[in-house]
Amino acid sequence: MPSFPPRNSATKKRQILERRIFEFLQLRNTDKKSEKQLRLADKVKVAKLNHLKARLAVLKTYASEVNFNTNLEDKILQEINEWENISYEDIISFCLMHSR
């Protein structure tokens, strides 16, 4: 039997996203646009997509227990589509907005 009950939210993915944003902003403060900064921006993008997909999975998992909100599912899917095609400048603005 596990020591901890399973989570019913995307907590770990959110923590990873926050750490990636922190790493990106730390490098952005020290450097101009470099190859390393582009890689960290891509890691932020991947972390955000993973967080959204985890939220969608949690929503589908608990859909039978609560009233399933299709508007929320559509909103998450739309956000996933937006993040798949996001630009570098949009990632910067997201990170700056998220850090406040």
Describe this protein's structure.
With 100 residues, the chain is mostly helical. It has one domain (11-99). The protein has four helices and no strands. The chain has helices at residues 11-30, 35-61, 70-84, 88-99. α1 runs antiparallel to α2, α1 (11-30) packs across α4 (88-99) and α2 packs antiparallel against α3 (70-84). It is globular. The termini are far apart.
Present the secondary structure layout:
Blueprint: H1 11-30, H2 35-61, H3 70-84, H4 88-99
Characterize the overall form: globular
Number of self-contained structural domains: 1
- Strand proportion, as a percent range, falls in under 5%
Total strand segments: 0
Number of helices: 4
- Low-confidence parts, pLDDT < 50 over ≥5 residues? none
Structural class assignment: mainly alpha
What keyword list fits this structure?
100 residues; 74% helix; mainly alpha; globular
How would you briefly describe this protein structure?
The protein is an all-alpha fold.
